[in-house]
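Re: export button greyed out
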Amino acid sequence: MITLYVNGKDMRLDIADDTPLLWVLRDELGLTGTKFGCGMALCGACTVQLNGAAVRSCSTPVSAAAGKHVLTVEAVDKTRPGRAVQAAWIKHDVPQCGYCQSGQIMSAAALLTQNKSPSDADIDAAMSGNICRCGTYNQIRAAIKDAAAALKG
Amino acid sequence: MSTAFKASRRSFLKGSATAGGGLVIGFVLPANGRLAQAAAPFAPNAYLRIAANGRVTVVCGLSEMGQGVLTAIPMLVAEELDADWAKVGVEQAPVDKAFNNPVFGMQATGGSTSVRGHWEPMRKAGAAAREMLVAAAAQTWKASPGDCRAAKGFVIHKSGKKLSYAHLAAHASKLPVPANPKLKDPKDFTILGQGLHRLDTPPKVNGKAKFGLDVRLPGMLIAVMARPPVPGGKALSVDDSKAKAIKGVHQVIQLPQGVAVLADGYWTAKQGRDALEIKWDDGPNAGLGSSDISKMLAEATTVPAKVGRNDGDVRTAGGTKAIESHYEAPYLAHACMEPMNCTAWVKQDEVEIWAGTQSQGPSQGIVSQVSGVAPGKVKIHTMYLGGGFGRRFAPDFTVDATLLSKMSGKPVKLVYAREDDMRAYFYRPVSATRFTGALDASGRPVAFSARVASPSLMEASGFMKLPPNGVDQFAVEGVQDLPYDIPNLRVEYARVEPGVQVWFWRSVGHSQNIFFSESFVDELAHEAGKDPFEFRRDLLGKQPRYKGALELAADKAGWGAPLPAGVFRGIAVAQSFGSYVAEVAEVSVGDDGALKVHRVVAAVDCGRTVNPEIIRRQIESAIVYGLSAALYGKITLNDGKVEQGNFDSYPVLRMNEMPKVEVYIVPSTENPGGIGEPGLPPLAPAVTGAIFAATGKRIRRLPIDRDLLKKA
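Workaround output, generated via the alternate export path:
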């Protein structure tokens, strides 16, 4: 039995320790907002927050999340940076196909939790693990700056 | 024992021969939609309905893969309906002839055809509804329809009184549907041409958007499939005892395309797949290597081939300077963010499919054949597509999911692991082209010939055939339609089939051919001692739309103005899918060969604009897709095996490499051109033209080899 705190709720799961957190979220808990992209922590589509830090859930065994707070895109609006990021994403119409955007939003919200005024270099460092094949990078950068400004205001 | 099923992938592809390959124009708007829209008070055709609360729902038969079609199609309808945009929503259509893409004659999304094909029919659908609402109001008021006008969801009488569409919907539904409603003068457009927000943004920022991979059904099994490591191979024998010993694995099924493990969840199925012990027959491609393929292509360019275009006579053109060059581009994977997947449920007399597909029309027929259920009983639920780029036009994942559901008797979601996705073939074709060109004493080109060697996409598609002249239209597009004023011009095509399945990839033949032809035009400019922009402009006197895009891009980029030290420019222009795009790239090259693209300025003439913000984003998107391919993209074979599998071996552009992008739109009153693809073709030659300006080294093979750029 593993105990997880997912989006503020206690979850007790009978599941193999080495199951990636991604598949626990998607297949066991039905939280399909978190996406499968590569299975090797190369693309960032599966990004969630673990105690506020961005992690790649496809390569995080569920045992590593035991007793920690898991936040997914479905509940990121419960945090101030998450709300600001979502609002900026809507203002800039960031998504195209949208598949990578849950991961982008979770990485961006984690960045703004830790860094109130990210520079371009900070954004590059925090976001270069998240691939977007539609090429929305410039809109993501603009939206992150907008969200940072909104959080200060 | 695993269950075996014998049938060939090729026969499924051939089974999709529904379209005949030609363009089918002459779309007839059904007077009454065949779809059940009875619940709404007013549904004058298959494409829209108005609810009692005035909410307008546009029903869209096209697939949303990021290109914005679920916003653009509603805008076309809403403009002529004079709807209040705030009350317009959109819904995905089922498969029905009413939703055939007028360009293809089948329900499918691709070839940057959505706005081009639906520009008139969707506006007519909206205009018909507007005329009926106006007539309903006129009857209510006992007034002349000529004294009434529509605006923002109301019909307004010249006296100033007005009635809402919500109020009029039930009445309007009893009136005849006009056969030929009058369309607006474009000067009266209030919605078209506006950069409105996308309708699909909100569900894409809160995790609620449902992609194919997000489908969950009660009792569903998840399948992961081991595929032959060599394209065209098949399993000789399978030991599935270790896979079946894993808790949660239900079944192992052998298909012609591979061996599938069906389990309770993806992770279990993937572990099961990895535990399979399979002996493969590598088939005819055993031992095939990329260098062999390059050699086959190069050899084919040295002998006469099928003639696609022959202006004047290149042999007697003369000229004082002649040059010859050989170009090559590799196989490419699409690498959509969402790996291929499909959920199928084959029941007794019905099949349901949930998929992010670009080809629901042909898929319905193929699934019918595979399942033995009548086509009309095959329901396809089109989900959001996590990227398409042509890949999701292919039927492989739909066919395999259907077979697995049929054979297991359960709903099955088939998911390709990333490595399986990348090694599941359906690649952009390899291609090579040998050019020769000659200039007269003044530096003007007098002869241009190109011999293209490439596999035939038309034949690979399963729904097209090579035309009588033997020239594959996709293999030569972008070379054969060279726009420059050159009196003697010859283009030939040699079909070379190395044996790997090829498929449509964003911008198709233009993706490599514009790199080839625009690079060679740069070579001619250099040989003539002329500026690459001016050289092109001088040869485009008869091509105002090419010239307009070229001049706008050059102007906005500040062509000729000084750049920061170490930064150089390149330029290219192309027409594809009915739109004209020129791009200027600013590039620097380090002594170690490190390449940085700083800025790309694009100008697009795509005719009248539906949504200029979506246009700008699509051009930028295609620039990024093209830059990934130019910098990194290649699928190579070694000893028959595909060497790439995931984003480590098949890198794509990331945030830290993203250039600044500016997109400018040429004002135009022409009918709309396509927009999902035309931004891609000029990118690679603009970048390699800038590399030449920086280093004097001409890149003739993609992806760009950084070792060639190192300072000696």
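Confidence is low (pLDDT under 50) at residues 1-38 of chain B. The button fix ships in the next patch.
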